[in-house]
């Protein structure tokens, strides 16, 4: 007997529960019907050895069994060395027929048995609130599950029936299939082939979780109605938020936010070109502009995703303020000596620009939803932004002069070496018409266009000249420059410098705009962008995207040059093709001019005369 005790291992909580349960079952099998008595004692590994299971722990386990419905009417002896109890008969409150057929229960049990190890399945059942007293393990996995399902299926208690449905619903949860909703859906369809014979069905709710319910309750239920109800709630929430944001004072704040962040980006770009020596004037401009931005974001709560535990729809998904002020910027972007920075964070415009562009994109989208205005109603704020823009122009000029001075000093200090010419090679002169910019092969256009104000696309006019090699740029009816596609950066290849797809997109857009801008679709432009080649719709869309970015760089603005038209490409600027393709009926900013004059011979002659004069100039 002593040897048997010495062989007992140290017991885990599960082993302690199983030990007490086995003692109760053993006692019930050899005892007559009625009350049973179990002696409570301290179980040790060996005499006077460490305790494996105390009497107090046995009493706690017995109370747990009573809560779970395994035993009932427990009562301690007066000396507390034993306990009286009665077994709960499973025949009491038991249906004659289960609410789900045994074949269906076995099918479901075998499915769960094949889904994991025995310990995993026990863990799942416990997490689904199945009492330990019902979990018979070690045992064949599917039989262990079947025993539990069968217990709940035969019970007359509604709470037990609900528990059965809950277990089946948990088995169908997508998380049991590594988050694969299609796999969960396929299993639900398989279960439903069996469940339908008991008038039950497993259906998915709006959370993509499954619920087991009576099929008769779903006859009149349409999933589209459920989705429509949810969509109506979202639409109402969106309406309420937009109604608040479209209040005159809030619309003004969003319009101010958009203009202020444009200027904010320009400040950051100028500063990043020479971050080591920021001026106090530039820092003051940065701080003032930042305050305009942060005040608006705070007032309209655009920085948070939820209020009172309710998700907000209209927020800034991206919200980026690059640094506190210009004098602390270098410190903010320089890790301490004991730190290792693996983020790639760098005080450069190339690093900062994508994050600021993303923020501006969110602001611009919100601006369009509330139908903001380009004209601010507060003159003092507009004046502040104008003053900052003027300061930026002066700062850029100073940076240019400084860079040029350094270049001249460097050139003057270069050592002079005597070079003796012993022979002259034969010179070959080719293509003398090419300009220095073409020879350099650089893609960045070496031009900075002078504009009297931040560019408004509605004031821009682009005219393609004969041969589709050059472009005339006008702003507010004033000629700014005439430049070829190479100087504007619309080329590919350092040596050949062929017109790229962005230039082809511009020419195609101009041709279609001269007749009907609504024809400027990706499908219609597939064979117009590149000569002799038909592009895919995706390539046309990519060419348009690259063209937009190039145009923004040339005109020094982050505003989108196109309207938000889904079916076709509608520019905000006026675009004219080469003179031979121009007609009286043109489409500047997406709308026709002089619609009532089409077919008027006198007007056509007048227009032709004007065109000839333009070509002569």
Description:
The structure is a single chain. The radius of gyration is 40 Å and the shape is elongated. Helix 6 runs antiparallel to helix 7 (158-171), helix 10 runs antiparallel to helix 13 (349-369) and helix 16 (501-513) packs across helix 17 (537-555). Helix content is 46%, strand content 10%. The strands form 6 sheets. Strands 12-11-10-15 form a 4-stranded mixed beta sheet, covered by helices on one side. The chain has a 3-stranded antiparallel beta sheet with strand order 1-5-4, with helices on one face. A two-stranded antiparallel ribbon has the order 2-3. The protein has helices at residues 2-6, 13-30, 55-67, 102-113, 118-127, 141-154, 158-171, 181-195, 223-245, 248-272, 280-299, 329-332, 349-369, 379-412, 436-440, 501-513, 537-555, 601-616; strands at residues 36-39, 43-44, 51-53, 71-76, 82-87, 200-204, 210-214, 306-307, 310-311, 460-464, 470-475, 478-484, 491-492, 498-499, 574-576. The protein folds into 4 domains: 2-87, Arc Repressor Mutant, subunit A (Orthogonal Bundle); 102-217, no CATH class; 236-336 and 343-400, no CATH class; 455-616, no CATH class. The termini are far apart. It is of the alpha+beta class. It has 18 helices and 15 strands. The model is unreliable at 1-8, 427-443 and 584-605 (pLDDT under 50).
Quick overview of this protein structure:
This protein is of the alpha+beta class.
């Amino acid at each position: 007997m002593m040897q048997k005790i010495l062989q007992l291992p140290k017991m885990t909580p599960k082993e302690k529960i199983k030990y007490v349960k086995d003692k109760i079952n053993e006692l019930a099998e050899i005892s007559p019907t009625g009350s049973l008595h179990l002696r409570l004692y301290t179980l040790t590994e060996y005499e006077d050895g460490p305790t494996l299971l105390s009497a107090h722990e046995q009493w706690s386990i017995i109370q747990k069994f009573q809560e779970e419905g395994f035993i009932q009417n427990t009562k301690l002896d007066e000396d507390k060395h034993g306990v009286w109890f009665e077994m709960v008969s499973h025949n009491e409150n038991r249906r004659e027929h289960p609410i789900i057929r045994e074949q269906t229960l076995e099918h479901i049990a075998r499915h769960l048995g094949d889904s994991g190890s025995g310990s995993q399945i026990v863990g799942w059942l416990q997490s689904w609130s199945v009492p330990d007293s019902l979990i018979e393990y070690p045992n064949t996995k599917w039989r262990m599950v079947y025993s539990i399902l069968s217990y709940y299926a035969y019970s007359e208690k509604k709470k037990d029936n609900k528990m059965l449905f809950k277990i089946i619903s948990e088995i169908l949860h997508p998380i049991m299939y590594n988050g694969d909703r299609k796999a969960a859906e396929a299993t639900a369809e398989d279960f439903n082939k069996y469940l339908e014979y008991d008038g039950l069905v497993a259906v998915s709710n709006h959370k993509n979780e499954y619920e087991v319910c009576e099929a008769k309750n779903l006859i009149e239920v349409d999933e589209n109605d459920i989705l429509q109800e949810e969509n109506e709630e979202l639409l109402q929430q969106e309406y309420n938020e937009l109604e608040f944001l479209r209040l005159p004072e809030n619309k003004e704040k969003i319009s101010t936010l958009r203009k202020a962040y444009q200027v904010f980006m320009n400040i950051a770009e100028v500063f990043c070109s020479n971050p080591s020596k920021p001026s106090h004037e530039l820092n003051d401009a940065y701080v003032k502009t930042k305050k305009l931005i942060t005040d608006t974001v705070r007032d309209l709560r655009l920085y948070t995703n939820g209020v009172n535990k309710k998700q907000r729809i209209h927020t800034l998904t991206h919200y980026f303020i690059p640094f506190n002020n210009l004098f602390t910027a270098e410190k903010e972007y320089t890790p301490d000596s004991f730190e290792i920075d693996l983020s790639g964070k760098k005080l450069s415009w190339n690093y900062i620009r994508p994050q600021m562009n993303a923020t501006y994109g969110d602001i611009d989208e919100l601006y369009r939803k509330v139908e903001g205005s380009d004209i601010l109603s507060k003159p003092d704020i507009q004046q502040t932004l104008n003053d900052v823009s003027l300061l930026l122009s002066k700062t850029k000029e100073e940076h240019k002069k400084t860079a040029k001075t350094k270049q001249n000093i460097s050139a003057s200090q270069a050592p002079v070496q005597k070079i003796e010419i012993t022979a002259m090679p034969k010179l070959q002169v080719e293509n003398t018409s090419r300009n220095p910019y073409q020879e350099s092969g650089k893609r960045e256009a070496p031009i900075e266009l002078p504009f009297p104000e931040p560019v408004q696309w509605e004031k821009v006019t682009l005219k393609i000249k004969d041969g589709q090699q050059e472009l005339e740029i006008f702003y507010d009816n004033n000629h700014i420059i005439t430049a070829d596609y190479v100087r504007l950066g619309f080329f590919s290849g350092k040596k050949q410098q062929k017109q790229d797809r962005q230039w082809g997109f511009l020419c195609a857009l101009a041709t279609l705009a001269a007749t009907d801008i609504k024809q400027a679709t990706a499908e219609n432009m597939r064979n117009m962008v590149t000569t002799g080649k038909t592009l895919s719709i995706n390539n046309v869309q990519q060419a348009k995207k690259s063209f937009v970015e190039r145009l923004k760089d040339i005109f020094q603005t982050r505003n989108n040059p196109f309207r938000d038209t889904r079916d076709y490409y509608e520019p905000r600027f006026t675009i004219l093709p080469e003179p031979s393709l121009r007609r009286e009926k043109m489409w500047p900013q997406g709308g026709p001019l002089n619609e009532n004059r089409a077919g008027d011979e006198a007007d056509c002659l007048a227009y032709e005369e004007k065109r000839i004069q333009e070509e002569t100039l």
